[in-house]
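ESCALATION

Customer reports they have been waiting on this structure for their group meeting. Please prioritize. Original submission:
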Amino acid sequence: MAAKLMDQMLYSPGAAQVLAETRQALRSGRMDDAYRDRIGQTQHRATYWPPEQAAAFLRVHTGLMSGEFAMALIEVGEMPAGDADRHVNAQRLSHVHPAFTVRVDAEQSHAEGDGEFCWAVPVRAQRSTGRPFSAGLPPSPELAAYEVPPNCVPLEIGLTFPSRTLMHLLKHGGVARWPYQSTVVALLLNTQTGGAA
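Update from on-call: job pushed to the front of the queue and completed.
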């Protein structure tokens, strides 16, 4: 999927230019680490991401900036342990707000994700209006509240490719990302499907 996406971008001069600029931003470290890691995090720094993963990152980023995707940040209070420490991660995630129910898959054998992240009441996320807010420099997106009805999405803890995040957004309507070195779960939601698959 990521390779096809990259090919599509390369056929458009404008998209190819933005992809080149995105790769440069990822390689130079100008990208905000927390934001980048919510979309994708690998064992090697983003400097070493193959071009198709930069394309997937750009696709998710564009979706967030245009309002196609929304984000809610949920405080956990602790960072995730290593991938093999599933019981530790399940225990740490049990401290999220009581509106959320988290199930960490103990086996994760060929699973779609590391578990499931559910909420029993509507969740308020932030969604870009697609217009820039230029009071600060550099300009940032103008954000508006976006309410998502109760649902469940796959959970991805620690390392994951940007293409996997994109796949969850398109296939499952969202993903809950808990990157290493973060005390926050980023709930990314597809606003076109109302956060549903």
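Sent to customer with the following note: The chain has a mean pLDDT of 87.
Escalation resolved.
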